[in-house]
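DM from R.C. (forwarded with permission)

"hey, sorry to bug you on a friday — could you get me a structure for this? deadline for the figure draft is monday and I only need the backbone to look sensible"
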Amino acid sequence: MAIRGIVFSEFDSTKGPQIAYEVPVGFLPTGGFKVIEKFLIPKVQLCNRVISIVAMGFRILSYPVNISNPKYYRNHLLFNITFFLEPKIDPLPYESLLARFCSYIRTLEIESGLVVNKATKQSLPALLTKVMEEINMNSGCLVAADPANAVHLQVTRPPPTLPPVPPHMVPILLVDASTIKQAVDDIVLHEVLHHIDGRAFVKRIAHCVGMPLPLVQQCIACLLAANLAVLADVRGGLCHGPFAYLMRISGFEWYPPSPHIHIHTTQHTHPPSHSRPLDVSLF
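My reply, with the result:
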């Protein structure tokens, strides 16, 4: 359970910062609000942005919202929605989710007075409860805020770090290129796939497609990250054991092992002025 609790707090013109709703009720330790109230109801300069702290065994994500309008007392409405997360969880995906959630509530307040109107404000505890439960279960939610509006939130994970793609490595597809082209409609990727034949190395592919090397490396790195391709090192005439296996499962023809393979490769990888290595079969 990533979200342990949600607190809706506001600035009362007579009492100061107050907790309006707490979900689930009683999860916050006694006196806990006093410890963190300056982060939940801060000065105007810190409003409309995520504030992240660690306190009381929680990772606390706070998003104070300030709305300026003459219709409010002192021309301002200040409220806050706070997520209390597990302390070791990555807060980054939930920061954008909290900002989007508060944006929904801000819009509903401006359009229909959700927070100021006591009749509509009473729907907030049920809304907070459904949002917390569905996000914990499904990493997202689609909850009706009123008969005409819904809150749609989704936990978005950061993209994985792409693996390095050295220019001398040879990419080998593990899935047929036509299948990838049907799933991904990208002109650059289609051009790169056309030149991946199990023999051309990355720099040569970039030269053949007439594109910058970093762009081609990024395309191939995406294929590696999606487990659609692997890299093989065939420098110096070396043909590693896994290379033959990958050629077979990729659908390429693979000829029976022959001692002539080593002789043929050394003729192209070693200049005549250098002494050739011993002709020893690799298989």
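R.C.: lifesaver. The first strand starts at residue 3 and ends at 12.
me: no worries. The mean pLDDT is 83.
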